[in-house]
Each structure stands twice: as C-alpha cells, then as structure tokens.
Amino acid sequence: MFRPLALVLGGAAMLASAPLLASGADAVRSRIAAYRELGASFKTVNDGLRGPEPQAMLIQIAARQIVNASRAQYGLFPAGSGAESGARTRAKPEVWAQAARFKAAQDAFSVEALAFQRAAMANNVPAIRTEARKLGATCKGCHDTFRVPGD
Ligand code: ASC
Question: 151 falls in which pLDDT band (50, 70, 90)?
C-alpha cells in the first residue's frame, strides 16, 4: 500500500533535487579549470625562477594559490566524475579504485605545497628552487599513476 506512494515521493524528491546536484560532467569541467589554474601558478614560479633575481611577491602569490589548490583538490574527484560522466577526462579509473593510494599522492602534494610556500615567504631563493623541483615531482607522482598521459 505505502510502497507505490513512497516510490512516487522518492522519485519526485530526486527530480526536484537533481538540478542542485552537479553532474559528473560538471565536476570534470571544474576539475580541469582548477588544475589549469594550478598549472598557471606553477608556471609563474618557474618563469620567475628563470631570471637571476626572482620577484618574491609574484612567487609568494603563486605559492598561496598553489596551497589553495592543494586543499581544493580533495573535492575535485567526486564519484561519477570519471569516464562514466561522458565528459572527456584524463583521470584514470585508478583514482577511485585505489582511493587510499590516490589520497596519499594528493597528501604528498599538499605537504610539499606548504614547504614551497614556507620557502617563498622566507624569500630564500635556493630553497625556493629546491622546493619548486620537489613540488613538480609531487605533481608528476600523481600523474604517473592516475592520469592518462598526454601534453
Ligand atoms: C608543470 C605542470 C605539471 C608539472 C609536472 C612536473 O608545470 O603543468 O603537471 O609541472 O610536469 O613534473
């Protein structure tokens, strides 16, 4: 007796809430935008380090953006935002199938982002160079396992 009613109400609730939930494809788009920004911040760092006298302020701003990105990344891979979303994504199924390992790779990046920011805030150029290299290695550490190669 109650079953059909519950189904109808449940279905209505799902329909009503559907527009509020970001689709997997939306999540893919947000993710790509976020990592593109992160790449631009890292490029600012590496471009700055090419010259003999890197600009502390530019690198510090980039460092803060990188730290923010390292925190935001944990929310960028909701279930359903892999290839099954229908959007083009280079995130491999391993992101979700090996969640603990993926989180460890994200954590490595987060820790290194903070170490890089410390060097940037101290304007210690040799340390900034060293930490920038280590930071790039943590980007690569994730890509090697969890992203389809390209670029
Ligand atoms: C970059 C960028 C990455 C990393 C990675 C480091 O500039 O966009 O993904 O560095 O290539 O190995």
Answer: confident
pLDDT band at 88 (very low <50, low <70, confident <90, very high): very high
Pocket of ligand 1 (CB under 6 A): 39, 42-43, 136, 139-140
Q: Which of 37, 140, 142, 146 to probe ligand 1 with, by most ligand atoms within 8 A of CB?
A: 140
Pick the residue with more confidence: 118 or 22? 118
DSSP letter string, 21-83? SPPHHHHHHHHHHHHHHHHHHHHHHHHHHHSSS--HHHHHHHHHHHHHHHHHGGGS--TT-SG
CATH superfamily of 2-146: Cytochrome c/b562 (1.20.120.10)
